[in-house]
Amino acid sequence: MKTVTIPIFEYDELPKETQEKIINESIEYMLEINWPSEAFQKACAKAEAMRTPWFVGEYIWEDCKEEVLNLCREHSYFRYGKIYTEMYYR
């Protein structure tokens, strides 16, 4: 049997490029599940009202920055931004 040690990081410990990747993936996730917050719904409505759905991610970032960052900080990550899920690595 081999034992492998792989470093696991908190969001704030990761490089900026990796944090940006995680932010974008979190915004995509929020869109997929139709995140149930008033600020999120407002950002989506803004994109729809302005007929610029391609900017919805930017509106979400502007209006829901703290929610997005809280979602990012809920997980631990491998170096390149993949979420570490303990139940798979026991």
Describe the protein's architecture and organization:
The structure is a single chain. This protein has 90 residues and is mainly alpha-helical. It has one domain (12-88). The protein has three helices and three strands. A three-stranded antiparallel beta sheet has the order 1-2-3, with no helix packed on it. Strand 2 (76-77) and strand 3 (83-84) form a beta hairpin. The radius of gyration is 16 Å and the shape is elongated. The mean pLDDT is 93.
Give the arrangement of secondary structure elements.
Layout: E1 9-10, H1 16-33, H2 38-49, H3 56-73, E2 76-77, E3 83-84
Antiparallel strand pairs: 1-2, 2-3
Helix pairs in contact: 1-3, 2-3
Number of helices: 3
Biggest sheet features = 3 strands, antiparallel
Topology as a string of helices (H) and strands (E): EHHHEE
Give the fraction of residues assigned to helices: 40-55%
Write down the Rg.
Answer: 16 Å
Strand content: 5-15%
Secondary structural class: mainly alpha
Mean pLDDT, nearest integer?
93
Global outline: elongated
Low-pLDDT sequence parts: none
- Please state the oligomeric state of the protein chains shown: single chain
DSSP strand count: 3
Query: What is the straight-line distance between the termini?
Result: 14 Å
Give the spatial strand order of the biggest sheet.
Answer: 1-2-3
- What count of domains describes the coordinates? 1
In short:
This protein has 90 residues and is mainly alpha-helical.
